[in-house]
């Protein structure tokens, strides 16, 4: 199995072994991420992929400074928007404040308000942002995995076709 990784404006080709079928009971025992992704990678191949991505990330940004800088900037931006929306300065955003200043959050208010107390705290908003990022990453990984599986299946079909063609040529001689 191989895939392209884009980071910091550079594209690298990474090979990480082949796709295997799930180990018995792995999906049931796996964490939510594995269940969400619903991938057919063996534990060994998942570890190879993680290592390849870690190695690549370290080669591009050895100390992860850029990643951490972006993460801090996003957190700071989120905090600023939260504080701007908190009209009564009580440290929370109610449905009205969200509707006025954060319409995207207002549409998802019940999902963001995880403790269902009628207000959103900064922590709840940060958790919601993290969950959304995880879902995006999982969806992107699932799409990439489907592309890889389709490519592998296509290659296997071509190989079988070529093998059958070679076998039929041998019979004609």
Fraction of helical residues: 55-70%
User: In sequence order, what are the helices and strands, one letter per element?
Assistant: EEHHHHEHHHEH
Globally, the shape reads elongated
What's the name of the CATH homologous superfamily of the largest domain? Answer: EF-hand
Number of strands: 4
Give the biggest beta sheet.
2 strands, antiparallel
Which fold does the CATH topology of the largest domain refer to? Recoverin, domain 1
Oligomer: single chain
The CATH architecture of the largest domain would be Orthogonal Bundle
Spatially, the strands of the biggest sheet line up as 1-2
Mean pLDDT: 75
Integer tally of domains? 2
Low-confidence stretches at least 5 residues in length (pLDDT < 50)? 14-30, 34-38
Structural class based on helices, strands and sheet pairing: mainly alpha
Report the top-level CATH class of the largest domain.
Mainly Alpha
Structural notes for this entry:
The chain is mainly alpha-helical and 173 residues long. It has two domains: 1-62, no CATH class; 66-130, EF-hand (Recoverin, domain 1). It contains eight helices and four strands; from the N terminus they run ββααααβαααβα. The strands form two sheets. The protein has a two-stranded antiparallel ribbon with strand order 1-2. Strands 3-4 form a two-stranded antiparallel ribbon. The chain starts with a strand and ends with a helix. Mean pLDDT is 75; it is low at 14-30 and 34-38.
């Amino acid at each position: 199995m191989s895939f392209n990784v884009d980071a910091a404006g550079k594209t690298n080709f990474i090979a990480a072994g082949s796709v295997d079928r799930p180990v018995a009971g792995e999906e049931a025992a796996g964490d939510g991420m594995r269940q969400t992704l619903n991938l057919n990678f063996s534990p060994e191949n998942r570890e190879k992929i993680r290592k390849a991505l870690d190695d690549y990330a370290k080669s591009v940004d050895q100390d992860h400074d850029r990643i951490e800088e972006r993460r801090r900037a996003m957190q700071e931006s989120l905090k600023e928007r939260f504080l701007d929306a908190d009209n009564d300065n009580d440290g929370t955003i109610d449905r009205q404040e969200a509707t006025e200043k954060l319409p995207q959050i207002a549409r998802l208010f019940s999902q963001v308000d995880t403790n269902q107390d009628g207000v959103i705290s900064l922590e709840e908003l940060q958790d919601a942002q993290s969950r959304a990022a995880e879902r995006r990453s999982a969806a992107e990984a699932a799409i990439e995995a489907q592309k890889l599986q389709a490519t592998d299946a296509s290659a296997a079909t071509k190989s079988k076709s070529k093998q059958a063609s070679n076998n039929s040529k041998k019979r004609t001689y």
